[in-house]
Amino acid sequence: MRLVIATIVALLGTTLGVSYDGYKVYKIVTKTEAEAALLRTFESNENFDFWSSINKVGKPISVMVAPNAQSQFEFILKTTKMHFSVEIEDVESTIEAERRYHQSRRPLKSGRITFDQYLRHDEINAYLAELAQNYPDNVTLETIGQSYQKRDMIAIRISSGPSDPPKPAVFIDAGIHAREWIAPAVALYAINQLVENPYYSLFTEHVDWIILPSLNPDGYEYTWDENRLWRKTLSNGTRCIGCDANRNFGYHWMEDGADDDECSEIYGGKEAFSEVETQNLRDYLADTPNIKGYLSLHSFGQYVLYPWSYADVLPDNADELQGLGEQINNAIEAVNGTTYTVGSTTATLYAAAGASQDWAMGGAGIDIVYSIELPGGGFFGFDLPPSEIERVALETFEGLKVFGQYFVAQKR
């Protein structure tokens, strides 16, 4: 039977298109580690896109499967008596519904913000420019570089002004995975509250906030115009374009949890820091003094994760990170009851060698480092309905406040 299954896996097709007509999403619940191991054999196959990790027996797993692979895949699931159901019969129809919603919205005036729809990259940058113009005493914009397709990667520094000694700074980025639209939206909400809500001026008195709302702008725009479920950057390749930027950082690069197949969703790149976007972030973190905390926003899954991502090992300050992570979770939970799982990335979720958080700690020397996997929603997790943006952003902001204020209490 193992030989039969292995042969079927090897014969499955090899190309995903940008139209998702006929693509299905399966929900699978494994009963044994052997079943989980079998599913892992599909992870590098281009006809399969796993939207949740295969890390714990009994935990539901969602995977999108191309039409030409579905009958063989279902045969394997039935032959091995694995429990499964079809969550989405046609992925394209859900993408079309989202597209129609945004087409129905009136265009924003340049430099304005809303949280009842997602914004394009130019709209994000226009809002940052408007804030810099309206709040020159508190807002500074820094272009950390340009993307592969020459889009400006703009970080905003929110500060009450210089101090002696210099205040600690926290750095937050979002959107490293293009399809995770809620992440830039949450970053924008945090910016909006810290700059435009006078109540939160207290939070910039002793800490500078540096927020990069769009770390992968090319991929993000590609999800609007070409392929809603695109994850990677858009650099040229031999067979496939792009790289998983969150596997491209040069700390334990291309170890466990990354793939050297350039068509894989977790392709780590032809070399560490092959992507201009990861180079820009590396150089900014290395050259900017006094960054004491780093946090990267992702979706989906409701996790507060800390290093290490390259293996199931813990940093020396794991107890501190676990404790602060639980405080972040408690603050978020107090708003709407949303709970997060707190733990190291590999032990809690999966290995992801070459992740930005590992480089932030191991390369840039930042001690307090997290990735937050925001809640999913909609039909396939990455399409959280616009009506839910403000709810998720509001509760997450409570956790971000705890993160920022930690450095005041610790006098780091």
From TrEMBL:
UniProt domain Peptidase M14: residue ranges: 117-407
Pfam family, one: Peptidase_M14
One BP term from GO: proteolysis
Active site positions, chain numbering: 373
InterPro entries reported in the protein's UniProt record: CARBOXYPEPT_ZN_1, M14A-like_propep, M14A_act_pep, Peptidase_M14
UniProt keyword list: Carboxypeptidase, Disulfide bond, Hydrolase, Metal-binding, Metalloprotease, Protease, Secreted, Signal, Zinc
Gene Ontology CC, one term: extracellular space
GO molecular function: metallocarboxypeptidase activity; zinc ion binding
Identification of the protein by name: Zinc carboxypeptidase A 1
